Amino acid sequence: MARNVRLLHCTPDDVFRVLANGWLYPLWVVGASRMRDVSDEWPNEGAELHHSFGSWPALVNDTTVMRVWDPPRRAVLEPHGGPIGIARVAVDVKPRGDACVVRLQEEPVTGPTTLLPDVVFDAITRWRNAETLHRLAYLAEGGAPGTTGGAAAIGHASTAEKEPVRR
Question: The dihedral of CA 155, 158, 159, 165: what is its sign?
Fold first, then answer.
């Protein structure tokens, strides 16, 4: 299992506001190149993001399913990478003073990456996920557009209405 940790100079809620906005997914996830759709239920458990990875002309349509949504502590996503297989990605966030520590863990579930020796998978994935956390930090620390709105924006309130989506 590949593990990356980064100190972000923002609150855990700031991190979860980025995760809650599915349209921002390709801005922080390395390899995701465009969004096709975000289910109305996002980020609730079982909701899906529809995106693509790769570069034209070699684009693969993909989905990511939210498996655990427990803001401001934990989210577990399950990217379905077509021929690459399925992965499980856990994002754990802990407050640290005026900042927070974000731990990103990724492991292959199905597909050819499960055949790689752990040391190879971990090295490649840690390298990619270091950039993923770097991008997530820019968005969370900088207050990315579409991430304002307090607790309601990240699903703390059961009666929260989602921000309107601009397509």
Answer: positive
> Left if phi > 0, otherwise alpha if psi is -120 to 50, otherwise beta: which for 66?
beta
pLDDT digits (tens, 9 = 90+) for 67-107: 999 999 999 999 998 788 999 999 999 999 999 999 999 99
Domain 2-151 belongs to what topology? Alpha-D-Glucose-1,6-Bisphosphate; Chain A, domain 4 (3.30.530)
Segments making up each domain of the chain, as ranges: 2-151
**Which residues are CB-neighbours of 23 under 8 A, at least 6 positions away?**
35, 38, 146, 165
DSSP state, residue 77: E
Least confident of 12-16, 110-114, 150-154, 156-160: 156-160
Q: Is the pTM of this model over 0.90?
A: no
DSSP readout, 82-147? Answer: GGG-BEEEEEEEEEETTEEEEEEEEEE-SSGGGGS-HHHHHHHHHHHHHHHHHHHHHHHHHT-TT-
